[in-house]
From TrEMBL:
Subcellular localization(s) per the UniProt record: Membrane
UniProt keyword annotations, A-Z: Membrane, Transmembrane, Transmembrane helix
Protein name: Fatty acid hydroxylase domain-containing protein
Pfam families: FA_hydroxylase
Keyword set includes Transmembrane: yes
Length: 327
């Protein structure tokens, strides 16, 4: 595909007036104002706190409905009855602890938001004009524009993923290697041998604060993410964490398709035989590979669980058919 064709395609997407201003021989005028909030009347900083909580419970409720009405039984990692027989904590306790974690998370975020800088707008075209002047003419203006508005944000989000993964891996691994830390903090999360969606943030409050709240907050602050980038990072990370604990291998689940660190990968870590493996979370598996803590028989475990699930699913269909006949 030629560069001129790429430029014309991108030019059809981005505002022509902005591109013309950046290409102008005269530097565009800057009119700097406070950047408007994404949702009028609600500060972006507070939306960044509310959005992940709303996403967590919306996605969790979806999977809870799927669980209760047995809508996707053939995709379960574990048979449904194991959720009651193997887990060492009730759903009521899990619900209480996750709500408390969200309270601590939101309270911390509310306090930190008071120190957020004021983000402005109106200078962008003048800034991009300066970049345009310093770059060779063969580089399309539309590429400069797209790089500033979209590619740079994407790059920062990917780096944020790496920071979160690094923070969580080493803290998570340390909590397993130190018996005192494991017994007093991390063991609580491992009361769920059969994970389910809304148990994703079931932790000791201290661990939850250090592992999740501080890890994601550190990534956002250290990279200087804009409010909207922060909203995306917090919400996406939350959805990914819920998906990792959902208890299903879904063929059309993009989280599970794109990321090697997925529900089956993390489920192994919740089993007694896998508790010393698969510490990486929630995006990549690089650190596990680096430290040789990857569980190497994942495919065999996956196939074995699928066989069990398929057998249970057939039994479920048979029982449902018999019930329907009686009715």
């Amino acid at each position: 595909m030629s560069s001129s064709l790429v430029q014309s395609l991108l030019g059809a997407v981005f505002p022509t007036s902005d591109l013309e201003a950046i290409d102008s021989p005269i530097k565009p005028f800057s009119h700097i104002t406070v950047k408007p909030d994404l949702i009028p009347g609600y500060r972006d900083s507070y939306v960044a706190l509310a959005a992940p909580v709303i996403a967590y419970w919306t996605y969790s409720i979806f999977f809870h409905i799927v669980d209760e009405y047995k809508l996707l039984e053939k995709y379960r990692i574990h048979p449904s009855e194991e959720q009651l027989s193997r887990n060492r904590v009730t759903q009521a306790v899990v619900l209480r602890d996750v709500l408390f974690q969200h309270f601590i998370q939101s309270l911390t975020g509310y306090y930190v938001a008071k120190f957020d800088p004021i983000f402005t707008t109106g200078y962008e075209n003048a800034y991009l004009w300066q970049i345009r002047q310093s770059l060779p003419g063969f580089i399309p203006t539309v590429l400069i524009y797209a790089g500033y508005w979209y590619f740079s944000s994407l790059a920062k989000i990917v780096v944020a993923f790496v920071i979160i993964d690094t923070w969580q891996f080493f803290l998570h691994k340390t909590m397993h290697e130190n018996k005192w830390l494991y017994r007093h903090f991390h063991a609580r999360h491992h009361q769920l041998y059969v994970p389910y969606a809304f148990g994703a943030l079931f932790n000791n409050p201290v661990e939850g604060f250090l592992l999740d709240t501080c890890g994601t907050g550190l990534a956002a602050i250290s990279l200087g993410l804009s409010p909207r980038e922060t909203i995306f990072l917090y919400t996406f990370s939350t959805l990914k964490t819920v998906d990792d604990h959902c208890g299903y291998q879904l063929p059309w689940d993009l989280f599970q398709y794109v990321f090697p660190n997925n529900s089956i990968y993390h489920d192994i870590h919740h089993q007694m035989f896998g508790i010393k493996y698969n510490f990486s979370q929630p995006f990549f598996v690089v650190w596990d590979r680096w430290f040789n803590t990857t569980y190497h028989d994942i495919d065999n475990y996956k196939n074995k669980q699928q066989e069990i699930t398929v057998a249970k699913y057939r039994q479920f269909l048979k029982e449902r058919k018999e019930r329907n006949k009686k009715e």
